[in-house]
Amino acid sequence: MWRVLAVHGFGGLTLRAVAAEMGATTGLLTHYFPSKRALLKHALEVLDRRSADRPRPAAERAGEASGLVMVRATLLDILPLDAESAASNRIWVASWDVALADPELAREHAERYRRARERMAGHIAQAKELGELPLGTPTDDTAAAAQSFVLGLVVQALFAPREFPAERQIALVDEYLARVGDGGTAGE
Amino acid sequence: MWRVLAVHGFGGLTLRAVAAEMGATTGLLTHYFPSKRALLKHALEVLDRRSADRPRPAAERAGEASGLVMVRATLLDILPLDAESAASNRIWVASWDVALADPELAREHAERYRRARERMAGHIAQAKELGELPLGTPTDDTAAAAQSFVLGLVVQALFAPREFPAERQIALVDEYLARVGDGGTAGE
C-alpha cells in the first residue's frame, strides 16, 4: 500500500494494485480494508506510528537538546531529505485532497497539525527561556510560521527535487532559523 | 467543475457530478472533456488565467510599488483570505496528488512554482536595490523560503480555518517579512 501510494498517489490507489503488490487476492485485502478510504486511513496511522517510533535526535537522547536545537531537528525531521522521507511526504500530500473532502479525516489532520504546532511552540518557549530567542518572540505565531515554512518546502521539494536537494533544504531551514533568532529583537 | 472541485476535491470530481452542476448531460461534457484529468487540467488553466487577469494591487498600478510592498502583495494574493481564494486554494491542493503521479502535470506545476519564485526573486532584488532589505539577503533562497512559507500557510489555513482567520494569516505574513528585513543584517 505504501509503495502504491508513494508512486501513484491516492488517485492510483486501488485495492487491486495493493493486492498485486502484496501478492494477495483482492478478496483477502477487502476483508481487512473495505474501501480506498480505509486503506488511506491505515496508511496515515502507519505514518503517525513510524514518526512516533523514529529514533529521536542524538542531542535530545543525551538530554542536551536546547530549544532551538529541537526546533531545527523537528523541522529537518519533516523534510524529504532522503528517499524514505520523500515517500512519506508524498503520502501526506496525497492525503490532503481526500482529507479536505472528508470531515473525519479533515478533523484528524487538523488535530495532527495542531499537536505538531504545540510541540513546536514548546521548543520555542524553551528557546526563549534559554535566551536563544528574544523574550518578545511570539511563541504560537512563530510555531505556526515555522510549520508553514516546512510544509510548503515539502511541496516545492516534491515537485522540484533537483532544485531542492537535501543540502539546499537544510540551508533554507538554517537561514530561516537565523532570521527567527535575529528578527525577534524588534519585539523585545 | 469549479464548485465540484472546491467542495468535493479531485476525489469527488466525476463527469456526472460536473454535468449535474451544469444542468448538462454527461454526453455533452465528455465531448469537451474526455476524462477527469482533462477536467482538472482545464480547472488549473482557468485558475492560472484568473490569477493573471486579477487586478494588480493599487500600489503597483500607481507605479508606487516598492520591492517589499510587492513581496507582501504577492504573498497575500496567494492566501485563502476569503471564500473565493479558499476555493481556488482548495483546487490547487486537490491537484497536487494527481500532478505528482502524472509527469506532464508535475512538470507544469514545477514550472508554475519556478516562475512564481522568479517573480518573487525579482521583487526581493528590487527591495535590496531600494535599501528595504540588506544587500546580503540571498535573493533566490529568500524567494524560495517566502513561497514555502505561504504554501504551507495555505495548507494549515484550509485544515484549520478557525485557527487561521484572515487577520492572523496577514499578521503572520507581516511578522515573516519583518524578520526577513531584520535578519538579513547578519549577511551584510
TrEMBL record, chains A, B:
Protein name stated in the entry: TetR/AcrR family transcriptional regulator
Domain HTH tetR-type: 1-51
Pfam families with a match to the protein in the record: TetR_C_6, TetR_N
Keywords carried by this UniProt record: DNA-binding, Repressor, Transcription, Transcription regulation
InterPro entries, per the entry: BetI_C, DNA-bd_HTH_TetR-type_CS, Homeodomain-like_sf, HTH_TetR, Tet_transcr_reg_TetR-rel_C_sf
DNA-binding region: 14-33
UniProt entry tagged with the keyword Transcription regulation: yes
Highest taxon, organism lineage: Bacteria
